[in-house]
Every structure is written in C-alpha cells, then in structure tokens.
Amino acid sequence: MPTAAASAYSLSSFLPLIVIVALFVVMFYLPQRRRSNQLKKMLAGLTPGDEVVLSNGIMGSVVKVGDMVITLQLSEGAEVKVQRDTLTQILPKGTLKSL
After folding, report:
1. What does the pLDDT look like over 33-60, one tens digit per residue?
2. Could you tell me if residue 77 is left (phi over 0), alpha (psi between -120 and 50 degrees) or otherwise beta?
C-alpha cells in the first residue's frame, strides 16, 4: 500500500513534464491559433477594391472574390487568379498607387 509520501513523490516527478507541456501550449499553440483567427477574419472581410499582398510578395488590387480563388489586378490589363490561402496582408487604400 503506497504511503502519502510515495504518492507525493510520484506527483512531483511528473511536475517538470507538466510544466514543459504548459509552456509548449502557451508559447506555440496559442499564438498560432490567434494568427489563424486573424487570417480567417481578414479573408471573410475581403472585398473587391482591397489592395493585398500575397505570401510571395506580389501586390495587387482585388477584382473578384470567390470561395477558393481571388482575382487580382496587378496592372492595367494584367489579372491573375490566386488561391485565397496565399493572401497574407490587406494594405491601406492607395498604397499601390504610391509605390
């Protein structure tokens, strides 16, 4: 029959593992979840006319928003279709004209 001291010792031997798991959750999981939620909100509010930056650095103005694909105007007469997941940032209005 285990004594109280033995059960307290076994609990304290797991304490470093519990602390490491808690630190992992705080340092990695929660910030990633926060970024994911911000990206979802950004994509949900995307409208034609918004100026955006893609993950590869390409900048353009949104022409059409679909479920999986966004049509961007890079310059007059140059439009491309890209996946929504490649969007990383929405720029303030007029940014592309000032470049």
Report:
1. 998 899 889 888 999 999 999 999 999 9
2. left
